[in-house]
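Progress report, Aim 2. The chain analyzed during this reporting quarter is listed below.
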Amino acid sequence: MDVVTLLLIVASLIAYAIFKVRKQLRFWKDLGIPHNEPNFSRNLRPTTHMAQRLQSYYHKYKGQFPMAGMYLFTKPVGLVIDLDLLKCIYVKDFQYFHDRGMYYNERDDPLSAHLFNLEGAKWRNLRTKISPTFTSGKMKMMYPTMIAAGMQFSDYMNEKVAVESEFELKDLLARFTTDVIGMCAFGIECNTMKDPNAQFRLMARKQFESPRNRFKDLVCSAFPKFARLLRLKSTDSDLSDFFLNVVRQTIDFRLKNDVQRNDFMDLMLGMMKTENPEQDVLTFKEVAAQAFVFFIAGFETSSTTLTWALYELSINQDIQEKARQTVKEVLEKNNNTLSYEAILQMNYLDQIINETLRKYPPLHVNFRKVVNDYQIPNTTTILPAGTSVMVPTYAIQHDTDVFPDPERFDPDRFTAENIQSRHPMAWTPFGEGPRICIGMRFGMMQTRIGLALLLKSFRFSQGAKSTVPLEFNRKSFILAPEGGLWLKVEKV
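Predicted structure tokens for the chain:
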């Protein structure tokens, strides 16, 4: 091949790339949808949390069209504005939106191929297999294990309060949920209360506190096929090796010793060694991926919810006292035992948790991808297959037309009557429809247990090191507070 021919090929490829990028950057204009122009510096160097940026777009375009357009690098992304359209996406027209469009790489990064990320038939088959794991009956089976971790947490808090009156709580809450899920997912006592540098806790912190390669994340999100070609991973290699080894050792030990613990891993093992020839079995890597996402997603979202709940209760002492009375009254009716039945009777705790999830949804945005051309209801606009869509959960749950005075913390928003009076898509911190968070029951249960144990024995208030208002950590995708949560803690 001569030099001239080579230069022509290179020039043609560059011209084609420029053409494709320019076409992408006209995407929303060509569809006639109001939109923001791309801003590459903001994508790489954000000055506010993503939840707040999406909130500003939401308010800017609200009332103009059911959806607004924006760009992630050069990738067009639709922002859902209208709640009726959101109902179509989550429920009514789910067949067009069953995929999230999240990056995963089964070949090079097996832990990324979990239920949250998978698409199409793979997601549907795995969801069907795993759904029975999270029924209320299975929660009741795991409840004693969760309570055991809760009692370790309560004992540690008593020791802590005896020597300190003010301390940081976010890390303690994360250690509590790490212990709960370590025991329920793997049958392993992490003991992070006694050893904050336990391996499980270090790996959990590595996932959420290590600096992200923002450019790599953008490439994986905007150009997933190219990212797979480059064999890019979304999971740190050390983290992947650790969890694969833990799952392998746990499975080997249980099979060799015929150990049964009525936990998540037992249920996964049952699906690996089923004797029904007509039932698909899970592979080792599939089990490892589900255990990984159960651990990583479960401990951080629940601990962050508890963090924000204690922050609000420390400011709103009347709500805290009402919640404490609720816990005491229910315990008195149940022989002072925090039984499975007792925890389900603490309805006011659920209202507090729901209001916390409204004001501080850990996953402030949800994702969907159009799998077939879709006409937006009551318009002539057709979204092409492959279009990415984002649901700005935080923005919707802070909309004054949906939740009046949204910055006020008010658990009474979640009485049965008030829930019925709102649009069914007004509050969706777990998503909604067939792809609603499969671990919702588990997350709510461990959050209830943590809150009940804390309120039963301790009073929380603002101290010398407390910060009001708390700012969001803009480097964290999870809606977490900057600098943790410092509160004054006293025995009741």
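The two ends are 83 Å apart (CA to CA). The mean pLDDT is 89. These observations will guide the mutagenesis work planned for the next reporting period.
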